[in-house]
Amino acid sequence: MVAHKMRLSEIPSYIVDLAKKMGATDVAAKLVEARRIMIRFSNNEVTVSKGFLENSVDVFVMIEKHRAATTINTLSLKNIRRSVENIVRTAKSTPPADVYAPLPQGPFTYNSELMKAPEIPLEPDTLISYVESAIRGSLEVGAERAAGTLNASRSRITLTTSGDVYASQELAGIEISIRAFVSEFATGHAVSVAGKLEDFNPEEAGRTAGEIAKAASNPKPGEPGEYMALLGPMVFADIVNQVGSLSSAFLVDAGQSFLVDKLGSEVASRKFTLIDDPTLAGTLGARAFDDEGVPTRRKVIVESGILKTYLHNSMTAKKFGVETTGNAGIIAPYPWNLIVEPGGKSFEDLLAGIDDGIYVTNDWYLRYQNYRTGDFSTIPRDGMFRIKRGEIAESIRELRISDNMLRILNNIVDLSKSREWIRWWEVEIPTLAPYALIGKLNFTKSRM
User: Fold this and answer.
1) What is the pLDDT of residues 31-43, one digit of tens each?
2) What residues contact residue 32 under an 8 Å CB cut-off, 6+ apart?
3) Within-domain flag for 88
4) How many alpha carbons fall within 13 Å on the CB side of residue 21?
5) CA separation, residue 187 to residues 10, 44, 256, 380 (Å)
6) Does one domain contain both 311 and 439?
7) Which of 5, 174, 213, 241 is close enough to 188 for a disulfide, judged by CB 3.0 to 4.6 Å?
C-alpha cells in the first residue's frame, strides 16, 4: 500500500521531517522502488516466470548517541507515522554508542554518469529467450540437462537525510545462474551478471557450465592433503568477498575480522590488489552515493599485498579518526563493487605451472571457525579436478577446503589476465575476479 495524497518520492522527506519533530537529531530515509522479473528453469524447461513490484523505506534515526533503524514495507501514511513513532521511541531507550557523529552535511555533487542506469529489458519473452540460449549452450557441449534462475531488475533509490541531502539514482541489472548436469555427481556451474545488456552473455555461461559438467564425469574420491591449487573465478570471488566485507571498520572494531590491527601491514601476496570501485558506470555495483548521501569514490583496499584502508561510514570514521570512505550502510559500512587487478598469465599458463595439484571451479557453504583468525572451511561443488604435470588428470569429489584466509592470500602465486564478474547466492557483492594459483591449500575429507 502506498501513502495517499503523497508521491512515493516525497516519502523520505516526509519521514525525515516527522522524525525530527519527534525529537531525532539525525535522520536518514532511503526509499527503494524495485521492479524485478524472475525466470526459473529446470530439466531444460522454464518452470516459473514471475514479476515483483517492491517498495520499501529504510529509516535510521539518532538522538545524539542513541540510535535505531527499521524498514517500512507498508507505505500508508498511518503505518509510516506509527513506524516513525516506534523507531524514535526505540532510539530513546537504546544504550548510547561510544561516539556521536552527525550525519554528513550536504548538499553534495554527484557523478551524473552514475545517476541513470542503462536499459535492461523486463519483458518475459525476451528474458525467456536468454534462458533458452543458456540451456542450448550447455547442451551443445555435452550436458544432459540444465537448471537455474535469471533475474532482471530496474529500481530507483531516493535518499533524504537531515544533513540536507536529497538524491535519487536509478539501478539496473541482469543475472543468470546456470547449473549443468551430466549425472548426479558430474555438474558445472557458471554465471553471467551485468549492469548493461551488452555485457550479458547467457549462452557463454551455459557453455562454461556444460563444459565443466562434461569434464567432471565419473569423479573419484579425492585424497586429503596439502596441494597447489587453481581456484576458478567463482571460488576466488568468494574469498575476495570475505576480504572486502571484513574490511568494514564496523566488523574490525567489533573484533569480527581477520584484518584487525592489520592496517599498513602485509596481508596478502604482492600479486594481490583489491579495489572497491562503485564509480564504474554500467556495472552491477555502481553507486553515486552511499546511505548517508556521501558521494562514492574508488578506493584501494589492498595494494600489492598491503592493507591500505578499512571501509567507513561517518560513525566508524569518527571512532577511527579518519574520513568516511563513502561506504555507508548506516550501521555497518560495506563494499559496493570489488575488483581484483589482473595478473599476466592465461588459464592454460597457470594450469601448466602445477605438477601435482587440484583445480576447484566452485564452492559453497563457506563458514568460519574463527572470524578473528580467519580459520574457515568451504565445500567445493560442481567440477573439481586433480592436476598432474600441468594437465587435468581426473575428476574428483568428497573434499573440503579447510584453511585460513590470511594464509591463502599470502600463498597467491599468480593470477590470470582474464577476469569474470561474479555474483550469486554465495557471492553477494559484485566481484571482478581472475583465476588464482595458490601455492599451498589444505583439503580435508568431506561427504558432500
Assistant:
1) 999 999 999 999 9
2) 54, 55, 56, 57, 58, 155, 156, 157
3) yes
4) 9
5) 49, 14, 35, 12
6) yes
7) 213
Residue 306 belongs to domain spanning: 220-445
43 and 61, same domain (yes or no): yes
Q: Is residue 1 part of a domain?
A: no
Of 158, 153, 183, nearest to 168 by C-alpha is 158
**Which pLDDT score, from 0 to 100, does residue 4 have?**
56
CATH number, domain of 174, equals 3.30.2290.10
Report yes or no: 62 and 26 within 8 Å, Cβ to Cβ. Answer: yes
Give me 179's grid cell. Answer: 547449473
Q: Are residues 183 and 313 in the same domain?
A: no
Do 210 and 277 lie in a common domain?
A: no
Strands (DSSP E) along 64-144, which ranges? Answer: 66-72
Phi–psi pair at 57, nearest 5 degrees? -130, 125
In a domain, 272, yes or no: yes
Phi-psi map region of 174: left, alpha, beta (phi>0 left; psi -120 to 50 alpha): beta
- Cα separation, 184 vs 263, whole angstroms: 45
* Dist. CA 205–CA 133, nearest whole Å: 10
Helix axes 202-215 and 124-140, enclosed angle (nearest 10) = 30
Task: Answer whether residue 211 is part of any domain.
Answer: yes
pLDDT at residue 119 tops 70? yes
Smallest CA-to-CA distance from 189 within 181, 175, 203, 178 is with 178
Are both 207 and 293 inside the same structural domain?
no
- Secondary structure (3-state) at 409: helix
**196 shares a domain with 150:** yes
**Residue 277 Rama label (left phi>0; alpha psi -120 to 50; beta):** beta
Q: Are residues 249 and 141 in the same domain?
A: no
Q: Which of 64, 91, 107 is the last residue of a domain?
A: 107
pTM score, two decimals?
A: 0.96
Of 72, 91, 107, which marks where a domain is finished? 107
**Residue-wise pLDDT tens digits, 308-348:** 999 999 999 999 999 999 999 878 999 999 999 999 999 99
**Shortest CA distance to 448 belongs to which of 370, 363, 375?**
363
**pLDDT digits over 169-215, tens only?**
999 999 999 999 999 999 999 999 999 999 999 999 999 999 999 99
Domains contained in the chain, number? 3
Q: What is the DSSP string of 265-279?
A: SB-S-TT--EEE-TT
Q: What residues are paired with 355 via a beta bridge?
A: none
Q: Are residue 27 and residue 64 in the same domain, yes or no?
A: yes
Give the Å distances, CA to CA, from 309 to 149, 248, 276, 326: 36, 9, 11, 12
